[in-house]
Amino acid sequence: MFIALSTFEIANDMAAEVKEAFVNRPQLVNDAPGFVRLDVLSPKDNANEIWMMTFWTDEESYNTWYKNHMRESHQGVPKGVKLVPHSAKVRLFDHITD
Question: What Pfam families does the database record attribute to this sequence (predicted)?
Fold first, then answer.
């Protein structure tokens, strides 16, 4: 299994709106070949930080989705959200064990 972890920090007090957008997301990625699941987390020590973990059967499936659908997946982002500069990061992982 392959995991992509995207993290970012909200700069303008809109964390509640962003979290609600994830709860009500259109689930566009759910039918992508190789997609397993999406987990969205927020650390207790920083409510403005969001961690989005997508689980895939393989890295190629993730890369195909990312290349073809990344733009449309951001359509539900609340208007006016600003991020802490340089806080957005994507890290890629091989899943070793449950």
Answer: ABM
pTM of the predicted model as reported, rounded to 2 decimal places? 0.86
DSSP, res 86: T
Q: What are the residues whose beta carbons fall under 8 Å from the beta carbon of 20, sequence distance 6 or more?
A: none
pLDDT digits (tens, 9 = 90+) for 27-51: 888 999 999 999 999 999 999 999 9
CA 98 – CA 53 distance, rounded (Å): 15
* φ/ψ (deg, to 5) at 93: -135, 145
CATH architecture under which domain 2-94 falls: 2-Layer Sandwich (3.30)
- Residue 77: band (very low, low, confident or very high) from pLDDT cuts 50, 70, 90: confident
- Give the amino acid at 79: K
Instruction: Note whether 59 and 20 are within 8 A (CB).
Output: no
Task: Please state the domain extents for the chain.
Answer: 2-94
Of 52, 43, 38, 44, residue with least CA distance to 5: 52
